[in-house]
Specification:
Blueprint (H helix, E strand, L loop, with lengths): L2 H30 L2 H4 L4 E3 L2 E16 L9 E17 L2 E6 L3 H27 L2
Antiparallel strand pairs: 1-2, 2-3, 3-4
């Protein structure tokens, strides 16, 4: 076996070992992510129950280096974003989404700009008669 073939075999073996490790890690994390991570613990106050709802995601990647003597890299990340909550009150269940604060500003602003443009266009047509 040539030195090049030997290095290639070592790289494939190391790549497979990294892939196996990442797969095991992702599997363990997936099993440990219970529903209470996405649906939080219910909070009860008087006659109202609130259940928080979030989106959770995670990912991993890595490599073993391209040549002998290079270090490999492994990395990962997790994202958690609150989406809303489920409210249970008087026997009725309601999902209430949490909107981005910018939506509360941009939607009315955009509507106002469109209405203003329509009024200006209408006035310009009347003035041209």
């Amino acid at each position: 076996m040539t030195a090049s073939e030997h290095a290639s075999l070592e790289a494939r073996t190391a790549d497979q070992a990294t892939a196996d490790l990442l797969e095991q890690l992702a599997g363990k994390l997936g099993r440990r992510a219970p529903g209470t991570v996405v649906f939080g613990e219910p909070v009860v106050s008087q006659d109202v129950t609130v259940i928080p709802v979030a989106r959770i995601g995670f990912g991993f990647g890595g490599n073993t280096g391209q040549a002998a003597g290079e270090d490999g890299l492994v990395g990962g990340g997790v994202e958690a974003k609150p989406l809303g909550f489920i409210e249970i009150k008087e026997g009725r269940t309601t999902y209430k989404p949490i909107r981005d604060p910018w939506v509360n500003v941009l939607l009315p602003l955009t509507g106002g700009l469109l209405a203003g443009a329509a009024i200006v266009r209408c006035l310009a047509r009347r003035g041209g008669r």
